[in-house]
Amino acid sequence: MSKILIAYSSFGGNTERLAKAVKEGVESSGCTPIFKRASEVRELDFKEADGIIAGSPTYFGNMTAELKEMFDRFVSLRRQGGMEGKIGAAFATSGHPSGGKETTMMAIIQAFLIYGMIVVGDPISAGGHYGVACSGSPSQKDLDDARKLGIRVAELAKKLC
Q1: Contacts of 36 (CB under 8 A, 6+ apart)
Q2: What is the pLDDT of residues 35-46, one digit of tens each?
Q3: From 47, 55, 95, 134, which residue has the greatest number of CB atoms within 10 Å?
Q4: 14, 16, 7, 6: which is closest to 99 by C-alpha?
């Protein structure tokens, strides 16, 4: 059974709400979610995961230091090729419509690419862009789109891993 790590940083609760919806999507596909705040993720979580869906609130147009530190902490896995070929996807929140969600997701995607992972965006039915994002508190549509992202990554992991 494929395992999908949902790693997130959240201070106001909005990103955590999206992360929980992503988790629901992963579970509905029959995969096992590993659901953790970025600071709680361990190397074994990275190694065992067939896919990683990472989310962050936008801080100065970028991911939080907590999420960036998670990627930095496991850089040895990159050198070992331990992440190559796994699925990666991103989600983000901000307090303003032009608050930098896309640049935040691109920073997360960049980390996945450097790890040698296969990056996917959200499905066309959820918008078909860099990942799932919202401003402020997630709407029902935002939560539905987050579930779709979880499903997409889980289904791809089952096919590829």
Answers
A1: 5, 6, 7, 8, 45
A2: 999 999 999 999
A3: 55
A4: 14
